[in-house]
Amino acid sequence: MDVPKASDVLAKDLRERILSGELPEGTVLPAERELVKQTQMSRATVREALRILEVQNLIRVRAGRSGGAFVQRPTTNSMANTVSMMIRGQQIKLADLFQTREALEPFCAELAARNRTEADLAALDQANEALADPAADLTAFLQANLDWHVGVASAGRNELLIGFMTALSRAIYTGTENAAFVDDNVRAVTVRAHRSVTNAIRARDAEAAARRMSRHVHSYAKAALAVDDRDAITIDR
Q: Which residues contact 37 (CB under 8 A, 6 or more apart)?
């Protein structure tokens, strides 16, 4: 029978209090000495529990006179980082990443058409301009591509989808960093597809946005996998 470590027990208790809202964001946890006194646990145990929470992005530790352990809630970015680590650790196949994007992204476009703001459209237009820049090198093109796809998800206002799409887009960026694939024809087709989806989002035409996005991500995946048949990719960012 496995007996949980005392530090795990304390970390679990504090984690539940943070996630339930009992400890709101910005709350300063009691000082280490006070936690030792309250819990009757050793200082090493308390420190380990706080380290666990820090790794899980549930607290941030600030040094100095006004420092301490401050509660913070999980963010979209921390979720994206966790998914990225899972993709890398499990050596997820590039084909599986594309399949996941085909399943999620048309709905992201549909939500974007319903919920987008003028600021969202400005971000998409900026990414499209960077994408179409004839002077853009491979890195700049792929970054603009990532910014556009994440921008579509962000316009949908669904935090889970934003986190997933951020991680997927980072992974696909790395997996398609291949000059043999991203040639002039692929660039031109991508620019046209992005503008077409953006126009549907601007017009609040959810059906057209989903349909055009589905066609785009399917065609992009098919072309990419025809050039690069690697089983797995490496996330390095």
A: none
Helix axes 118-132, 184-202, angle to 10 degrees: 170
Which of 184, 176, 164 minimizes the C-alpha distance to 139? 176
Q: Convert the pLDDT of each residue in 89-99 to its tens digit.
A: 888 888 899 99
pTM to 2 decimal places: 0.77
For 99, the token pair is 């399949």
Select the CATH number that applies to the domain covering 76-227 from these four: 1.20.120.530, 3.40.30.10, 1.10.3210.10, 3.40.1050.10. Answer: 1.20.120.530
Instruction: Please give the Cα distance from 159 to 165 (Å, whole number).
Output: 10
Buried b (16+ CB within 10 A) or exposed e, 146-171: bbbbbbbbbbbebeebbbbbbbbbbb
